[in-house]
Design a protein that fits this description.
This protein is mainly alpha-helical and about 400 residues long. It has 19 helices and no strands. The chain has helices spanning about 1-10, 10-30, 40-60, 60-90, 100-105, 105-120, 125-140, 145-155, 175-185, 190-200, 205-225, 250-290, 295-300, 300-305, 315-325, 330-340, 345-355, 360-375, 380-405. Helix 3 (about 40-60) packs across helix 4 (about 60-90).
Amino acid sequence: MFGIVEFLMKDNHYISIMGIFVIIGVAFLFSKNKSKVNPRLIASALTMQFVFAFFILNTSVGRNLFLAISHGFQALYQFADEGARFVFGNLADIQGPWGMVFAIKVIPTIIFFGALMGLLFHLGIVQIFVKGLAIVIRPILGTSGAETLSVAANSMLGQTEAPLLIKHYLPKMTSSEMLLVMVGGMSHLSGSLLAVYGSMGVPIEHLLSSTIMAIPGAVLIAKILIPETETPETMGGSELKLEIETKNSLDAISRGTTDGLSLAVNVGAMLIAFISLMALVNTILVSTVGMSLNDIFAKAFYFVAFFLGIAPEDRSLAASLLGQKVVINEFVAYATFTGSEMLERSRAIMTYALAGFSNFSCIGIQIGGIGAICPSKRTMLTKLGLLALLGGMLTNLLNAAIASLFV
């Protein structure tokens, strides 16, 4: 036994094997019905995560496919820059003496991708991708049609947009299904924000990989936390339709642009507020207890970074980033991440660990967003909020621990 532990400790690549067991163990510890946890579902979901990770990170076909997709995203950034240059002129040029101005470089990208996603959804392209994922995943994991569709849609859509696809099924969803809908939202990033983080310097191939791995990962964690003990309405394979509400392509672009603008303004406002508040809290903490928020985060999440296989010299920074992500949001964490120096392997692992909406403010976003679609489930949403946050966080950490074995 001690020999196995010594082997795992000797190489950071293998310490994450212990991390995988610890993460699943934490989920089991918080399970609401431990005796009903389905070992077959857990094994199938974990195997699927490993297969996805191996295919994407350790095969030439997978690597080349995701590199090609990442190059496609990078080409799209240039189209977003064209609009920014027209409106802001030379200020959009990051080669200038002013460098990258966040509001000018990132916010136009959010608006552009909002419009693009609106158009792709109207044309049915998003639906093809989402349905394809659902068809592959559902028979293997044994999940219901509605919850599978929602968690698959989170690979492209946000935490309040994906549930819109199944809004007619929400009222009759079981607590286990609803938790998976929430964990799916917490453990993914929307397509628009994937593009934004990629444009900021976060490795886009790992961002794309994380959003695929998080689908079975969310199922695994959610079904441990609340195993299914009822019979979901769509378990039998009833047809799920993805409704298109836009009238034509111009209407889709217009609505997508408006949605992107709303998201961009919200992102900008949240960053101003949270970063300013962080500076205020840091000043108070340093003057009273002699420790900053980053110091506290570094201590609280240090062992999490250890079990992810992060190199010793990067663990304090990694722990601080994890704390920022959970307590504030992933945008602040990625902003710090891109401006820091970490080993390439540590950067790859942290890309997975941070790639999700699992933070305290998103509990309110989901209660407000999903609750507006289905008011009858608002009470259930409030009861599941903290558990969904834990589930989303554990899913991202599980992705990172698995990816650690292949990078």
